[in-house]
Design a protein that fits this description.
The protein is an alpha/beta fold. It has 22 helices and 25 strands.
């Protein structure tokens, strides 16, 4: 192509300069130039690397290189005119020649690239998308999408009124309010956010606005991720639901990592949602040793494999230990062997309906597991013990909440008896993405086509991301002076019904209800589950005190008289050992402020008085097995009848 273009440009330059199709004064003696110059030019271009360009990636730098090559070839043409006195070649002809040739070469290569893309896209149905953000990131995203086979950018949205109505990268820039009209016009159900450097507050506003329209919203990585090289501009991901939370994360304060940095740290429940994130955060703060204590072998294996390589890089000793927090002897052995200095206690049964159905196991693990930790920590002279608690411990309506409040009281009681170990608790609300969280459930239900189940139209909850919760728990541990209950600032509460609607809209779907009977996903109300509240609280009583961290507050809930707590725990332990659900719940109801159990024991026949009671229930009921049955009779039929 270049052989032809060089000859055409040379002829056209002479014709333009002298105003004739075939000026004899040039071509009478100079016609050999039309034969000699093209091979010279192609040889020059080859030497300059023009034929090593990848055609589909033609860009600004390639155009500059082509212009330079054409300029050098025009100098060669000018040299012919200067040294050949028989050749009539006006001085402006080489300049015109260079401009024409550069133009034709760029246009020719651009046309070839467009034809290549046309052939490449043939047979692929690209999905139309709208790009929010017409800045540099938006243009880079459009270029990346054009190179792919999946998406076809059709329009820009931007808040800058100076850009609205203009064309960028061949697409018109529209106001954000046009999103629904554009979605219908181009059949575009996706909006890509190209706003990596926008503030968190503004990002939330944009996502909240888009969630009111039936479009699926995805985003490119943040500017920090792009600058660090962790992500690429075209690495799209779903907008996290945390974008809709009414709170801003606060950067960690490195001064508050003194409880873990350079120390031997033990994390109970290390394979759980909170425990595993605590391990990640603590490891990043470079303790001398981190002991993963977990009862579930698969969970322990998973977190150990994940952290092993990073621990080696940071020169942190990583120890995976199987065991139950109720086993004091095992805890004592582990703490002495690994010289533990700080304990983060995250091992607990936390699912409200499951603990409601299995109250004795909840009591055994949550209360007596915490007591075992407290006892062994005192015996081993551990520096700090930090309990991961919950807002459900405040005036609880569930067995789980009551056991967590009792766990707090156990640590406060231990603090009253210890001058060596600092015990404290960190209380916060729901954590997004943790096991049992409503958000993964909603995502699964939306993917399955619905319905999305909400317990009650008025239920509200506080939410926090797992990494932020774990980070604040670690920092709160350094603030403890003894017996403290720390509250994490959870921001504004979120209505679960509103959360469900927004998640449906962010998936590009419509809610199916009376107003939109032809919608995609229906929301079904199932009623509050046993032990659930409409709203949660973080404070039992007393004032909230500020700390050096803006998102961590201190309360002294329940730091009163614990003189009879040992007696209460003894009575509760006997009830658990005897599998006596009724007595255990009575003790909780008498001890924990606000807790009222809905458990109603059946009327027992006279001939069953004094019989052994075994907790076999999956609800609040229990099976009663007579002594005679346990003595050797066929008790299976008795079980079925009872």
């Amino acid at each position: 192509m270049d052989l032809v273009l060089i000859g055409v440009s040379l002829w056209a330059a002479s014709a333009v300069r002298l105003g004739g199709v075939w000026p004899d004064e040039v071509w009478g003696q100079g016609w050999p130039l039309l034969v000699v110059l093209p091979p010279i030019g192609v040889t020059l271009f080859h030497g300059l690397g023009l034929y090593r360009f990848v055609l589909r990636s033609l860009g600004r730098h390639d155009v500059i290189r082509i212009a330079q090559a054409c300029f050098l070839l025009s100098l060669i043409l000018a040299a012919f005119g200067f040294f050949d006195f028989e050749l009539f070649l006006p001085r402006s002809t080489p300049i015109i020649f260079a401009l024409l040739l550069a133009f034709l070469m760029v246009v020719g290569r651009g046309a070839a690239r467009s034809y290549y893309q046309l052939l490449r896209e043939r047979g692929f149905q690209k999905r139309p998308v709208i790009v929010y953000g017409a800045g540099e990131s938006g243009m880079q995203l459009v270029a990346a999408l054009n190179a792919g086979r999946e998406f076809r950018p059709v329009a820009f949205l931007d808040d800058d009124k100076g850009l609205q109505g203009r064309f960028i990268a061949g697409r018109r820039v529209h106001a954000p309010g046009d999103v629904e009209a554009l979605s219908k016009k181009f059949a575009a159900s996706d909006v890509f956010l190209a706003l990596p450097s926008v503030s968190r507050a503004r990002r939330k506003e944009i996502v909240s606005f888009l969630s009111q329209h039936p479009v699926r919203v995805q985003t490119i990585p943040s500017m920090v991720e792009l600058a660090a090289g962790f992500e690429n501009i075209d690495r799209l991901r779903e907008v996290g639901i945390h974008e809709l939370l009414n709170r801003d994360a606060v950067d960690p304060m490195s001064a508050l990592f003194s409880s873990v940095r350079g120390k031997s740290v033990l994390v109970t429940g290390a394979g759980g949602s909170i425990g595993s994130e605590l391990c990640r955060q603590i490891l990043a703060m470079q303790p001398s040793r981190i002991v993963l204590f977990e009862i579930s072998e698969p969970a322990l294996y998973s977190i150990e494999i994940e952290l092993r390589e990073l621990a080696a890089e940071l020169d942190v000793e990583l120890i995976a230990t199987l065991g139950s927090v109720c086993d004091e002897a095992r805890l004592y052995q582990v703490m002495l062997t690994h010289e533990v200095e700080t304990i983060y206690h995250a091992a607990a049964y936390k699912h409200v309906p499951l603990v409601e159905a299995n109250p004795l196991e909840g009591i055994r693990n949550n209360i007596f597991g915490t007591r075992a930790i407290a006892r062994v920590a005192a015996a081993c002279r551990i520096d700090r013990v930090i309990l991961v608690s919950t807002d459900k411990a405040v005036r609880p309506t569930s067995v789980m909440g009551a056991t967590k409040r009792m766990a707090e009281m156990v640590l406060q009681h231990a603090q009253a008896q210890s001058a060596q170990t600092v015990y404290c608790m960190v209380r916060f609300g729901n954590v997004m993405g943790s096991s049992g969280s409503v958000i993964p459930l909603f995502q699964k239900q939306i993917a399955a086509g619905g319905p999305v189940t909400v317990t009650h139209p008025e239920v509200i909850r506080y939410f926090m991301t797992i990494p932020e919760a774990a980070q604040l728990v670690v920092q709160a541990g350094s603030l403890g002076k003894g017996g403290d209950v720390f509250l994490l600032d959870m921001g504004e509460p979120v209505a679960i019904l509103d959360l469900a609607r927004r998640m449906i809209h962010l998936s590009g779907l419509e809610v199916k209800d009376a107003a939109t009977p032809h919608g995609d996903i229906e929301i079904a109300f199932t009623g509050l589950r046993p032990g659930e509240k409409l709203f949660e609280e973080l404070l039992v009583s007393g004032d909230v005190l500020s700390t050096s961290h803006p998102k961590i507050m201190r309360s002294l809930d329940g730091a009163a008289d614990f003189g009879d707590l040992d007696e209460v725990l003894s009575e509760l332990e006997n009830a658990v050992l005897n599998h006596d659900v009724q007595s255990a719940l009575r003790v909780l109801q008498r001890t924990v402020e606000g807790f009222i159990s809905e458990y109603a024991p059946p009327n027992l026949p006279d001939n069953l008085v004094g019989a052994d009671v075994i907790d076999l229930s999956i609800s609040s009921s229990r099976a009663i097995i007579p002594d005679s049955a346990l003595a050797g009779a066929d008790y299976r039929s008795d079980l079925r009848s009872s």
